[in-house]
Write a structure and sequence with these properties.
The chain is α/β, with parallel strands linked by helices and 248 residues long. It is built from eight helices and five strands.
């Protein structure tokens, strides 16, 4: 077998090899150019804590339809582009969950108290509010238990039954309730008397409502003032009727 002979290196090949070596060395020593994305400031990711704060702020006494408004979406996107705004259904479920959690906490707290005051009021919009007041470490604590619409007649028996339903809903022992604070409406006063006879709860008339009646009686003694008040009441009733017809 013939042996392989070494091929001679020409001067052109030598120059080409030298040029390739130099270009290779230059490519290794040449610093890389900075990329444009290094100068672009990316918005930080929205952490779960930040998302929780934004979600709670939306749930704070705002209509749930607000999350579907285009202007609101644009505002949230400007504040934090990486925050994924949940849907209206999500916030509805969150409200239900929050109600259950707060209700459980209140049930535990109310079962540990020794005194409880219930304040009730019947508004002209046919709603009844029940608020519970109790002492915790000698500090007054208040919780609104319900603001319920009244679809039936506001009779004495119905009002007393509605209050008992709220008490049963939050599992408040009747013996821990000391008094019912109420206004001076005849049907509410009569309902408080029924609860006093049935459960032994004290009945206390609201001081603010009583003072309001005193001021009204004093104003009636002055004809000029009474005429102005009557005109204002007539105007208010007219506006209420217009608003009611507009909504219906």
């Amino acid at each position: 077998m013939a042996e392989d002979k070494e091929q001679p290196v020409t001067s052109g090949d030598a120059r080409m090899g030298t040029w390739r070596a130099k270009s290779h060395n230059l490519s290794q020593s040449k610093p890389s150019q900075p990329r444009m994305d290094k100068f672009h400031q990316k918005a930080p990711a929205c952490t779960p804590a930040q998302a929780a704060v934004l979600t709670d702020s939306i749930l704070n006494m705002r209509p749930l339809s607000m999350v579907e408004d285009d202007c609101f979406k644009a505002m949230i996107s400007t504040f934090h582009p990486n925050y994924d705004l949940p849907s209206r259904t999500f916030f509805t479920k969150q409200l239900d969950k929050k109600y259950v959690d707060i209700k459980d906490e209140m049930q535990k707290a109310l079962q540990e108290t020794d005194t409880t005051d219930i304040w009730t009021s019947v508004a002209t919009e046919a709603y009844m509010g029940v608020t519970c007041h109790y002492l915790k470490n000698w500090k007054m604590v208040s919780h609104c238990l319900t603001t319920m619409p009244l679809e039936e007649r506001h009779t004495t028996a119905n009002i007393a039954e509605w209050i008992e339903e709220v008490i049963a809903k939050f599992i408040i022992p009747p013996e821990k309730i000391k008094a019912v604070v109420h206004d001076n409406c005849a049907n509410v006063v009569a309902a408080a008397k029924i609860l006093h006879a049935k459960h032994g709860w004290g009945t206390v008339k609201c001081t603010g409502h009583t003072l309001n009646l005193v001021v009204q009686n004093s104003l009636k003694s002055q004809q000029v003032i009474s005429k102005c008040v009557a005109a204002a009441e007539a105007l208010l009733n007219t506006l209420r009727r217009v608003n009611w017809h507009a909504q219906s």
